Amino acid sequence: MEKKNLFGLTLAEIETELSNLPKFRAKQIANWIYQRGAISFEDMTDLPKILRADLEKNFEIQTPQLVKKLVSKDNLTTKFLLAFNDGAAVEVVLMRHDYGNSICISTQVGCQMGCKFCASTLNGLERNLTVGEMLGEIIFVQNFLRDEKQKVDTLVIMGTGEPLTNFDNLLKMLKLLHENYTLGLSYRKITISTCGIVPAIKKLIAEKIPVTLSISLHAPNNKLRSALMPINSAFPLEEVLKAGAEYALETGRRVTYEYILIGGVNDTEEHARQLAKILAGQLCNVNLIPINPVDERNFQPPTHNAVQKFFHFLNSHNINATIRKEFGAGINAACGQLRYASQGLKTKD
Ligand code: SAH
């Protein structure tokens, strides 16, 4: 008989699974797997030995395995390649900012969105991650940081995959992460990044959880956006911007628009002018990201001058813009690059 995995279940669900035991056992187990780094029943030293052996027969605790760890030269970025039970692997990145530890998790194995500049989508989508797998990415880093007496302070859902096409699992995971028997992470410390799945943005608004929404825009008109991001044909720019404005209005939270700057493609003053025009009056920030070139994609980084000019143009036209600080250069930190490299396909670095 297949063992039932407890990792990724809520306390109530664990209680149901262990309904023949007193309730406090479920609490103890949740505490062990979500807060004390246990990866087996054997680790749960305050449970009677006989109970541990009994649990072992019927249940398991599935947590990801570390395949590879890379640390940047300045020690501020650590990238983990984690594998799940079926061998599928995803990337998790830890960034040590001065305001705390931020982690970036993946929501899918691969991605089906087909963005032309992104490494994650090169081989399409393999599968969605489960609630337990996504939570497993976070708890893995939390356990890693515990040894340094540190913790995960903020979460960005910006790794491989399109989070809003794995909506139900993602929402369940975020609610679990918010519980005080896990990390008790405030929704305000969480950012979800999407390529602009409009109906799912509306579903997220209806959830009324105050997470920050980040929308990958990357182009100021439909022609260019459709060329870079096929999803734009399904949900064009006007609809994405409308959903973003609605998100800001309903939640009172500033939406971030991500804009990758690609040399000679979307980084001219005319592009900045168009962008300022379409965002005028929105409660938003623009995060400018000089492209992290992917070998398999034929895009060039913007010049330093082009980045500065774009940035100043937006700020002098009442659009709050920032330039993303580069993290993890040299360790394949751009989306999907490490996983892709580890598959023995074309590698970078
Ligand atoms: N699917 C979601 C989240 C994953 S991508 C989304 O589209 O937002 C996370 C961010 O990394 C997106 O803004 C994406 O456009 C960006 N990105 C992808 N490839 C990149 C590259 N080569 N250089 C810089 N940013 C990249």
Give the topology string: H per helix, E per strand. EHHHEEEEEEEHEHEHEHHEHEHEH
Number of helices: 11
pLDDT averaged over residues: 93
Describe the main β-sheet briefly.
10 strands, mixed
- Supply Rg: 21 Å
Instruction: Provide the structure class.
Output: alpha/beta
Please tell me what the overall shape is.
elongated
Helix content range: 25-40%
List each distinct ligand once: S-adenosyl-L-homocysteine
Low-confidence stretches: 344-349
Arrangement of strands in the largest sheet: 3-4-5-6-9-10-11-12-13-14
Cα separation of the termini: 45 Å
- Report the strand count: 14
Percent of residues in beta strands: 15-25%
Q: What report would you give on this structure?
A:
It is a single chain. The protein is an alpha/beta fold and 349 residues long. Helix content is 34%, strand content 20%. It contains 11 helices and 14 strands. The strands form 3 sheets. Strands 3-4-5-6-9-10-11-12-13-14 form a 10-stranded mixed sheet, covered by helices on one side. Strand 12, helix 9 and strand 13 form a beta-alpha-beta unit. Helix 1 crosses helix 2, helix 4 packs parallel to helix 5 and helix 9 runs parallel beside helix 10. The protein is elongated, with a radius of gyration of 21 Å. The N and C termini lie far apart (45 Å). Bound molecules: S-adenosyl-L-homocysteine. The site of S-adenosyl-L-homocysteine has 18 residues, from strand 10 and strand 12.
